[in-house]
Specification:
single chain, 324 residues, alpha+beta, Phosphorylase Kinase, domain 1, Aminoglycoside 3'-phosphotransferase, Chain: A, domain 2, 2 domains, five-stranded antiparallel sheet, 12 helices, globular, binds adenosine-5'-diphosphate, binds the ligand N[C@@H](CCOP(=O)(O)O)C(=O)O, ATP binding, Homoserine_kinase_II, EC 2.7.1.39, threonine biosynthesis, kinase
């Protein structure tokens, strides 16, 4: 996992030089599920993180780089990409025909689910709120790839495919029903210019109990803040069932930095259901139906279980549980 594109030391040196770096070592990292990651050692012993984009175009990578710079300079704990040495305002080089960026190395580690404490959850909630606040002044439009129409297209393709396993086929009518009910974007509450939209445990690094960085803004878009909060709650506050204490801690961290509006609060239940549906569908199309082994498998059933747990709550019950 994590190294889909090879990079020799000679190539790493040439790439590093484009960023004004003297590279002395390159090590492929067993990290991430989409892109190729390398640790580059720099003359003098420091390190940087090289990301080679496996799917995104140079234009998409450049926009993500500009977003990272904006967020990092407006209070979000995320590493800002290094600029190219000879091209003003550009952050994206190329390797093997693919876009590549270099980020400062962040010391830290992801937290496993059993290791998540209230303090971690609170810090994640605070960081998410900072993304929403800082993103408010990001002027470029960011369009989601995971809106209701995109999910409907994925479901339609599942209905048409002949290689869909029986356990997936039997849940398609339920997914259709859920999407039909949630397909108006207004269901999810007011939008902000930037949501992270994928703030899972592997996209946050902690060091010594403190949040070191929020990573991976590849799914970032404009969108509902309530949806983003509920994606994050579902990602961090479920072991085998919803951990209400963690959910409340995460929401309290969020609210301490950015208070939800009444409309956002009212949208939380549908936002949670849409979040569960989004990851159920994309896990079917992107993991269940693709060959195993290329990246860590992610089980769609765990998000169907989250949807069922949210079904058991009322809108008011969810707001009371989160205490927002
Ligand atoms: N700047 C960085 N410094 C150190 N490690 C990083 C840095 N950025 C990412 N990582 C590590 O690499 C992993 C994969 O990065 P990510 O950008 O999420 O890849 P992918 O898009 O393939 O999922 C992260 O989970 C994190 O552990
Ligand atoms: N967090 C998502 C998968 C998204 O993968 P990424 O590599 O794009 O962050 C999930 O768990 O389904």
């Amino acid at each position: 996992m994590g190294v889909f594109t090879a990079l020799s030391l000679e190539e790493a040196r040439a790439l590093g030089a484009r960023f004004g770096l003297v590279v002395t070592g390159a090590r492929g990292l067993d990290a991430g599920s989409v892109n190729t990651s390398y640790e580059l050692t720099i003359e003098g012993g420091s390190r940087v993180f090289l990301r080679i984009y496996e799917g995104a175009s140079a234009g998409v990578a450049a926009q993500e780089a500009r977003l990272l710079v904006h967020l990092a300079t407006h209070g979000v704990p995320t590493p800002a990409p290094l600029p190219l040495a000879c091209t003003s305002g550009s952050f994206v080089a190329e390797h093997a025909g693919k876009p590549a960026i270099v980020l400062p190395w962040i010391d830290g580690a992801s937290i496993c689910q059993r290791g998540v404490t209230d303090a971690h959850a609170r810090a994640v909630g605070e960081a998410l709120a900072r993304v929403h606040l800082a993103g408010a002044s990001f002027a470029e439009p960011l369009v989601t790839r995971f809106g209701p129409a995109d999910l409907a297209a994925r479901l339609a393709s599942l209905h048409e495919r002949t290689d869909v396993p029986g356990h997936v086929r039997v849940v398609l009518p339920e997914l259709d029903r859920r999407l039909e009910r949630l397909s108006s974007p207004s269901d999810l509450g007011p939008t902000v210019p930037v949501i992270h939209a994928d703030l899972f445990r592997d996209n946050v690094l902690f060091q010594g109990g403190a949040l070191a960085a929020v990573l991976d803004f590849e799914s970032a878009s404009s969108g509902s803040a309530a949806f983003d909060l509920m994606v994050t709650v579902l990602a961090w506050c479920f072991g085998d069932e919803l951990d209400r204490g963690l959910a409340r801690a995460l929401a309290s961290g969020y609210s301490a930095v950015r208070a939800l509006s009444d409309d956002e609060r009212a949208a939380l239940l549908d936002a949670a259901l849409f979040a569960a549906l989004r990851f159920t569908i994309t896990r079917i199309t992107d993991y269940e139906l693709r060959p195993r082994g290329r990246s860590m498998f992610r089980d769609y059933r765990r998000f169907l279980a989250r949807a069922a747990a949210i079904d058991a709550l009322s809108a008011r019950g969810l707001v009371e549980m989160l205490d927002v």
